[in-house]
Write a structure and sequence with these properties.
By secondary structure, the chain is of the alpha+beta class. The protein is 21% helix and 26% strand.
Length: 87
């Protein structure tokens, strides 16, 4: 979903709906709950290939376990500056 689509949806809501909690529901991971925060990601988050789905790591966290060449081969899953929802 693009942010523009979300904005269009939110703009279509009556004012009183904007005071309700925002929930998430993942039909692929079978979890649901309340969105805690919307933020701009402060740094790249990397996938190290351990599992899928897996925890994503900052470069500084990866540097404790891997050398720079190994980190360069990892995928950046969430680029710095991306808008993310925290659950």
């Amino acid at each position: 979903m693009k942010l523009r689509q979300l904005k269009k949806f939110l703009d279509s809501l009556p004012e009183e709906k904007l005071n309700e909690e925002l929930f998430y529901n993942s039909t692929t991971h079978f979890v649901s709950g309340v969105v805690l925060k919307v933020k701009r990601q402060p740094h790249d988050l990397y996938y190290n290939g351990d599992d899928d789905p897996a925890e994503l790591y900052s470069k500084s966290a990866l540097q404790k376990r891997f050398d720079d060449d190994e980190i360069k081969s990892m995928t950046i899953e969430v680029p710095k500056g991306t808008i993310v929802l925290e659950f």
